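ok so i was messing around last nite and threw this chain in just to see what happens. nothing serious, just curious
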Amino acid sequence: HVQLVESGGGSVQAGGSLKLTCTASGFSFADNVMGWYRQAPGNECELVSAKMYGERLWYADSVKGRFTISLDNAKNMVHLQMERLKPGDAAVYYCAGALGDCDTVPRGQGTQVTVS
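result:
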C-alpha cells in the first residue's frame, strides 16, 4: 500500500521561499520515478517537476531555475525547494508516485501554497 504525505506548504509573500517535503511508505523514491504536481482553483492539474529514472530531473518551464528537487534516500523523502515564488505558483501541491494523469497517479493529500 503506497502512502505519500506532503508537508511544508504555507503562505509567503511574492519573492519568498518554501520547501515542500514528501514522505512515503510502501514506495521507494530511489527506485521509482516521482513527480510534483500542482493545481490552483479553476486550473488544470499540472506537473511542475519530476525525478526520472537514472536520477534525471525535469522542470516545467514556468518553474525552471526557481524550483529544485532533491532526494534524501536514507529517509525516503523528496523535497521541492521553491525560490522566488510568484502569485502564479499558488496552488495545492501534490507528491505523486508516478507520472501521468494527475487524477489517476498515486498521490498524497496535498499541501497548500499561498503567495501574496
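not much to say yet. The mean pLDDT is 95.
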